[in-house]
Amino acid sequence: MDITIDLEKCTGCGLCLKACMYDAIRIVNKKAEIDENCTLCGACVEACTFNAISIAGIPVKAQDFSDYKGVWVFIENRNSQIAEVSYELLVEGRRLADTLGTTLAALAIGYGIKEKVSGLFDYGVDKVYLIESPLFENQLDDVFAKAIVQTISRYKPEIFLSGATSFGRSMIPRVAAILKTGLTADCTGLDIDANKKLLLQTRPTFGGNIMATIICPNNRPQMATVRPHAMGARGTETKNINYASLNHQENPSGLAQERGTPEVKRGDIIEIPIQENLFKSRLRLLETIDAIEEKINITDYDIIVSGGRGIGCAENFGLLRELADLLGGVVGASRAAVDSGWISYPHQVGQTGKTVNPKIYIACGISGAVQHLAGMQTSDVIIAINKDLDAPIFKIATYGIVGDLFEVVPRLIKRIKSGKKLF
Ligand SMILES: Cc1cc2nc3c(=O)[nH]c(=O)nc-3n(C[C@H](O)[C@H](O)[C@H](O)COP(=O)(O)OP(=O)(O)OC[C@H]3O[C@@H](n4cnc5c(N)ncnc54)[C@H](O)[C@@H]3O)c2cc1C
Ligand code: SF4
Ligand code: SF4
C-alpha cells in the first residue's frame, strides 16, 4: 500500500494534520507532506475534504451483502439464567433494527433455557432462535463458536451483537475469525450511519483518552461486543408467541437442515436441532471454582458512594460506608484506592473495573481520570467532593462540592440523620 498527496488539489488547509494521531503530517510551503511515522490508518483520507490524499492498494472486496438482513443478539446464559447484558443489547438492538427498518432476532444457545426464552419477546424481539442441548451446559468456547458460526452462515444477519462479558470476550472473537469478519470489542456505544446503513461501533481507545468509532464496510456480519451496563435496559413491549420447531434432516454441518423455509411469524421461537456428535469440544472442563472474592456486585445498586486516593487509608472508607448505608447504597472506589489495598477489586469503577449506571454517584476524593469516568459517566446524578477546584471530575458533575471530604461527608451524614434534605 502507498499513500500519496495530490499537490494540485492540496490547499494546505491542515485538516489532515488534526486527523493524524501518529504525527506523520507536516504542512510545508502550504502543502501537506507525510513522513515515515505514517501507519496507513487512513484517517487523513477521510478528513481531507479536497480529496487530495489517497491510499493505493487497499484490497476492497466488491461483495453483495443483500442477503444479510436483520440485527441479532446472542443471549448469554448460565445455570438457566439469562445474562443482564443480553437484555440491554436487545433494547439497543431494537433501536438499531428500527433505524435500519429491519427485524430483531435473539440467538439463545444453552441447556435448560427453553422456558426462559419466551420472556425475550418483552424486549421487542421479532424471532428467537433456540439451540438446546446438554452440550451447551458449560460455557465451552469452541462448541458455542461452532453453533454460532453455522447459524450465522445459514441465516445471514447483517449485525451480530454480544455482551463483552468474560465469556463473550473469549468466545466471540473465534466466531469473527472463522467468519473472516470484523469485530469491535468492548463497545460503549452503537449507532447506525443512516446513509451507508453501517453499524457505528464506538469504544474507548488509547488508554481511554479518545473514543474511536469503527465501521466494518467490507465484511458481514458487522460484529460487536458491548460492555455490560454501557446501555441501560429501557421500556419493553410484549409480543404474541408461537413455537415453530423446524422440520429437519441431518446434515454434515451439525445444524438441522431446513426443508423449505417455514413461514415465521412475529413472536416465533424457532428451535434448531443439532447433531450432537458433530459438536465435540476440544476443551475438557475439569472443575468450576467460584471466584475467591467478595460477592458484592456494585452494579446492582442505585446509589454508589465512591472513594479515591483522597480517602487516604483503608480505615477512612468506614466514613463512606456509613454514608452509603444511610442512603441504601454501596461503596465504590477508584483504581488508585484499590491498588493501594484500601478496598477490594470488586468495588473498582472504571475502564478496568465495573461500568456502573446508578441514579446517584458520589465521588469523594477522586480526580476524574478518563479511565474512571469511562465507568460512571452515564450515572443519572453525579456529586463530586474534591478539594481541588480544577479536578476534572467537576466537568461532568451534576453537583460539585469544593472542600475537604473529611469535613463535607460528616456534614452530609449529620444532615441525613437529622432528616433534612441534602440539597
Ligand atoms: C489502562 C488504564 C486503566 C485504568 N483503569 C482505571 C479504572 O478502571 N478505574 C480508575 O478509577 N482508574 C483507572 N485507571 C487509573 C486512572 O488513570 C487514575 O490514575 C485513577 O483513576 C486516579 O484515582 P484517584 O482519582 O482516586 O486519584 P488521584 O488522581 O490521585 O486523585 C485524588 C483526588 O483526591 C483529591 N483529594 C485529596 N485529598 C482530598 C480531601 N481530603 N478531600 C477532598 N478531595 C481530596 C485530590 O484533589 C485529587 O483530585 C486506569 C489507568 C490506566 C492507564
Ligand atoms: S486536508 Fe487535504 S487539502 Fe488540507 S492540507 Fe491535508 S491534504 Fe491538503
Ligand atoms: S494514513 Fe493515518 S498515519 Fe498516515 S498520515 Fe494519514 S492519518 Fe497519519
UniProtKB/TrEMBL annotation:
User: Record's Gene3D superfamilies?
Assistant: 3.30.70.20, HUPs (3.40.50.620), TPP-binding domain (3.40.50.1220)
Task: Report the record's Gene Ontology biological process terms.
Answer: fatty acid beta-oxidation using acyl-CoA dehydrogenase
Per its UniProt record, the required cofactor names are:
FAD
Alphabetically, the GO molecular function entries are:
electron transfer activity; flavin adenine dinucleotide binding
Record keywords: Electron transport, FAD, Flavoprotein, Transport
Q: Which family does it belong to?
A: Belongs to the ETF alpha-subunit/FixB family.
**UniProt name for this protein:** Electron transfer flavoprotein alpha subunit
The organism named in the record is Candidatus Hakubella thermalkaliphila
